[in-house]
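User: Sequence in, structure out. Go.
Assistant: Echoing your sequence, followed by the C-alpha cells.
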Amino acid sequence: MRCIKFNDFDKLKELLSKVELFNEFSRYDLPKVAELCDNVQFFEPEEVIIHKGEVDESFYILLAGTARVSKTISSESLFTLEPGCLFGEISFLSHTERTKNVVANENVFALKINRDMLESLEPDIRERIKDYLIQKLVNRIQQIEAASQ
C-alpha cells in the first residue's frame, strides 16, 4: 500500500462526485472534502486492504478498481466491492476488530477516513457522512433479515 497525494485536485473531486455518499454535496462542500483527502491509498492486485481481526478505527471509500471481501485471505469471495462502495464502517462505528478481509482484485485507489479527518470537517458535512453510514448499516440489516425469512 502506498499513500499518495493527488496532485490533480479536479480529478479527485471527479472521483468523489461519482460516490453515492457525495451525490447531494454542493459544489462548495465537495472541495472541502477533497482538500482533506491526503490519505488516498493505492493498492496493487492481491494486496490486502483490510485484515480480519485488526483494530483500525477508519473506513474506506473505494474510488477506483474492485476488491473482494472474504472470511480468510485465500477463501472464496463473499462479494465484490465496486467503485463508490464504503467498507470498514462497522469497525469505525463500533470500535471493534475487523470481521472480514478485503483484498484488491486489481489496482485500487481508496480514500481512508479516520476519526480526526471526519472531525475536522464542518459539522453539516460530518453529520451527512455519519447519517449516510448509519443508513447503509440499517439497509444491510434489513437485507439480512429479509434473506433469513
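User: And one key feature?
Assistant: The chain has a mean pLDDT of 86.
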